[in-house]
């Protein structure tokens, strides 16, 4: 369990680090403000919306998976 | 958890695809513009469909060698998911064509080949639903599945390359792979293919488990 958590974190880092420079470059020389979501024609808002939609669908898929697992156990143990 | 690591991988890869796919720099090309990012969503549907339909035909062959209800259910489940991904692939491709080629559909060998292949697979579902006897249904649809696969794959991947085509990857057109798919796009494209394919496998697994559970309960009630 501990091992799988560590490999999960490593995987996330491995996928995100190559991308990070693109995000990091957006820091301007003006005083720091929470600009990120308003830049580049507000594309980040769209990205956030898509991420939320995808996350919602995946959470639903996971919950269906768990329900089915529980039902399988219930049926096979009877 | 030990057997579900690939589901975690699916979630991570798909969220990565959505975020990095929209934000990472891509080549600036005329006509395509930002729609080049469709590569992370439209193309993986076809890659995933191919892999999933291959799994389906493997289970069909295994069924014919050694018949069991489980193998038939697996083959059917994978075929259903593969067909769904193919339909989504056609729909997204049509949408993409509207804003790059200027038309929803054109008589292109790649497009028509894919459409005919999807019809062949549609007939698989019709065929399956037309049997009352379960063993007969399983046997005949397994055989049809093999023929459908053998007919569909050349329609997707061989025939369009023999003639001229608008579509990348057909008509001697080397697709994105040769010069358009730069290393930044590879960084998203390959994880995207893996992520969408795994999502297809996941959905298939749920549908197969549900069907098997139904069959189990049904048998218990009869016994």
From TrEMBL, chain A:
Keywords of this entry: Membrane, Signal, Transmembrane, Transmembrane helix
TM segment ranges: 43-63
Leader sequence segment: 1-24
User: Pfam families of this UniProt entry?
Assistant: CcmD_alt
This chain's protein is named CcmD family protein
Q: Which organism is it from?
A: Hymenobacter guriensis
From TrEMBL, chain B:
What residues form the membrane-spanning segments?
40-61, 82-99, 111-127, 139-159, 188-212
Q: Which InterPro entries match?
A: Cyt_c_assembly, Cyt_c_biogenesis_CcmC, Cyt_c_biogenesis_CcsA/CcmC
Keywords, A to Z? Cytochrome c-type biogenesis, Membrane, Transmembrane, Transmembrane helix
The record's similarity note reads: Belongs to the CcmC/CycZ/HelC family.
**How does the record classify its membrane topology?**
Multi-pass membrane protein
Encoding gene, per UniProt annotation: ccsA
User: What would be one Pfam family of this protein?
Assistant: Cytochrom_C_asm
Q: What is this protein called?
A: Heme exporter protein C
What range(s) does the Cytochrome c assembly protein domain occupy?
9-158
Q: Tell me, what does this protein do in biology?
A: Required for the export of heme to the periplasm for the biogenesis of c-type cytochromes.
Origin organism is: Hymenobacter guriensis
Highest taxon above the source species: Bacteria
Task: State where the protein is found.
Answer: Membrane
């Amino acid at each position: 369990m501990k091992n799988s958590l560590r490999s999960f974190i490593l995987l996330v880092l491995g996928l995100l680090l190559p991308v990070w420079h693109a995000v990091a470059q957006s820091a301007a020389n003006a005083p720091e403000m929470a600009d990120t979501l308003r830049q580049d024609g507000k594309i980040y808002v769209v990205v956030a919306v898509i991420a939320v939609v995808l996350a919602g669908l995946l959470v639903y898929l996971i919950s269906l998976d768990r329900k089915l697992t529980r039902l399988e156990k219930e049926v096979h143990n009877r | 958890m030990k057997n579900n690591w690939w589901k975690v991988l699916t979630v991570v890869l798909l969220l990565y695809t959505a975020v990095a796919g929209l934000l990472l720099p891509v080549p600036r090309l005329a006509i395509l513009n930002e729609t080049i990012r469709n590569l992370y969503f439209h193309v993986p549907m076809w890659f995933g469909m191919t892999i999933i339909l291959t799994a389906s035909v493997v289970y069909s062959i295994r069924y014919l060698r050694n018949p069991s209800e489980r193998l038939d259910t697996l083959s059917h489940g994978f075929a259903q998911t593969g067909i769904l991904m193919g339909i989504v692939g056609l729909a997204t491709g049509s949408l993409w064509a509207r804003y790059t080629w200027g038309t929803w559909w054109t008589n292109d060998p790649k497009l028509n080949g894919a459409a005919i292949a999807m019809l062949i697979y549609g007939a698989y579902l019709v065929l399956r639903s037309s049997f009352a006897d379960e063993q007969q249904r399983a046997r005949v649809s397994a055989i049809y599945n093999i023929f459908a696969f053998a007919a569909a794959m050349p329609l997707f991947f061989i025939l369009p390359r023999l003639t001229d085509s608008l579509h990348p990857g057909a008509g001697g057109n080397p697709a994105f792979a040769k010069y358009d798919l730069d290393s930044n796009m590879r960084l998203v494209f390959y994880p995207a293919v893996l992520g969408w394919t795994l999502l297809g496998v996941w959905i298939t697994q749920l549908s197969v488990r549900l069907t098997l559970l139904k069959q189990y309960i049904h048998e218990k009630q009869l016994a």
